[in-house]
Design goal:
23 helices; globular; 5-stranded mixed β-sheet; about 500 residues; 5 strands
């Protein structure tokens, strides 16, 4: 047991040294953290109990809510890594293959980053892997309970249900457990949604609760179905394993990456690449390419290897179900591939087990360069707030304001989230200017962004108020104007 324990200790130390202060890859995470910080956790249908759970822990422990949520994610990520070892050993894998699976998943970019973010992706993972491990030991009731709670933490884990049903159906002695699994899973998840809808949200009918519970699924697919979906899936999977942020430090390479994400604002990535890299672009590219080629070589060898582990199908089935769902829903989203990674990596190394010296050497090369590339090319940068575009773009505003102040702004989704989380002031959109007088009692600030928006679509009395704006000195970023309270409509 010393090798997995030493590995977990080393990973915990590396994770602790790279706790992110840059949240630009977590647009929603800043809102989750703000909800918990101010004591208003949301019952969101796509992650029903995530915010309430974090708020409950915050109430018990106190301290900084954001850092506390990050520690919860980190603990969940380390538990998931431990369960990767447990699952590999349970099916009979050797020490080398089990350790390789642990270190590969733990060093993958998306797992590493979101395993330290105040976000929804890491917390359910121990339950997901625990559910699969329980299925392996033919404990259907426990597997269903774990799968249900994972689904309440993030709705995407509803796919554990069909995967389990398929697995149980292929084993005649387990078919009697299909009904048991299904009843328990539906009772816990359905019961939780109905209870929240009825008692927390005051839904009048079951139909209202059902419509709310569908969450983002009610909007249809996030990405239209395309014959290119499998190619996009490979891109999404690759960016979940290897960070490509360093490429934006080179304009030519950055332009090539932008082709895969048309219409997406990439200013955050460019800013981090300009301010947060430990090595230069070309050393990082060499490390990433070395890791990728070595990993592809291992996967290719695994594809043609025979496996002595008959239960590898359990791992492969869950990976395939999740991968199919991601490919259909949003194949380029690296966050969604986080759950696929443990199953995919386990499938590869289980097929390579027992690992010959060549496979072992290749794995060491792939994993060491993976950690170096993602650490030096992304995670060290993310641990420094100076690399955070949205914080730095609003730093003057955040530092200028005090409790009781009001900021009228016209800002993007993530920008508004940053102001809500980091500024002590109340935030109003430009369209809510008429509400500024009812808040306070501090100063009323108008940002340059809001002033431009109001100039383009003026409210009644705006032109008169505009003449009374006083620029804040020294000049801040974004530029600020103070509006006398008596001048508001």
């Amino acid at each position: 047991m010393k090798w997995p324990l030493l590995s977990l200790f080393a990973m915990a130390l590396i994770y602790a040294l790279t706790i992110p202060q840059n949240f630009t890859e977590g647009e929603d995470a800043v809102y989750y953290a703000e909800h918990v910080s101010v004591g208003l956790p949301q019952w969101h249908p796509n992650h029903l109990i995530y915010e309430p759970f974090n708020y409950w822990i915050h109430q018990l422990t106190g301290g900084d809510a954001v850092f506390g949520m990050q520690l919860i994610s980190m603990a969940a990520a380390l538990m998931a890594i431990a369960l990767i070892w447990a699952l590999a050993r349970a099916v009979g894998a050797g020490v080398s293959a089990s350790l390789a699976a642990m270190w590969t998943v733990a060093g993958s970019f998306a797992f590493w980053l979101y395993g330290l973010y105040p976000d929804t992706y890491a917390l359910p993972l121990p339950l997901v892997l625990g559910s699969v491990l329980a299925l392996f030991h033919r404990r259907a009731a426990l597997a269903a309970c774990l799968a249900a709670v994972a689904t309440l933490l993030h709705q995407s884990h509803v796919f554990l249900w069909p995967a389990a049903v398929i697995w149980l159906a292929f084993w005649p002695q387990n078919r009697m457990n299909i009904s048991r699994y299904s009843v328990i899973f539906i009772a816990i998840t359905g019961g939780a949604y109905v209870a929240v809808g009825r008692f927390a949200l005051d839904h009048a009918t079951f139909g209202e609760t059902l419509a709310w519970a569908r969450g983002y699924a009610s909007d249809g697919l996030w990405t239209p179905l395309s014959i290119l979906a499998p190619v996009k899936a490979l891109v999404g999977l690759a960016t979940a394993i290897w960070s490509t942020l360093f490429l934006f430090a080179d304009p030519t390479l950055g332009a090539q990456v932008e082709r895969f994400f048309p219409g997406r604002l990439l200013i955050e990535e460019v800013f981090l690449a300009d301010t947060g890299l430990v090595f230069g672009v070309w050393p990082l590219l060499a490390l990433t390419a070395t890791s990728a080629l070595a990993m592809v070589g291992l996967a290719g060898r695994a594809a043609f290897a025979g496996s002595r582990h008959p239960m590898i199908g359990l791992v492969a089935l869950h990976g395939a179900v999740y991968a199919l769902a991601v490919t259909v829903w949003e194949p380029t989203n690296k966050e969604f591939w986080i759950t696929v990674l443990p199953f995919l990596v386990l499938a590869v190394f289980l097929r390579l087990d027992p690992m010959a010296w060549a496979a072992r050497a290749t794995a060491i090369l792939a994993i060491s360069t993976l950690w170096l590339a993602n650490g030096a090319g992304a995670m060290v940068g993310f641990s420094d707030r100076a690399t955070d575009y949205w914080y730095q773009a609003n730093r003057g505003l955040i530092e200028e304001t005090q409790p009781g102040d009001v900021i009228v702004d016209d800002c993007a989704y993530i920008c508004t989230g940053y102001l809500l989380l980091f500024s002590p002031a109340e935030i109003l959109p430009a369209s809510g200017l008429d509400l500024a007088e009812t808040t306070g009692p501090g100063r009323i600030f108008i940002t340059e962004r809001a002033r431009a928006a109001l100039d383009a679509d003026p409210q009644q009395g705006w032109l008169q108020m505009r003449g009374g704006l006083e620029p804040v000195r020294p000049v801040t970023a974004p530029e600020l104007y103070e509006m006398p309270r008596q001048a508001s409509p």
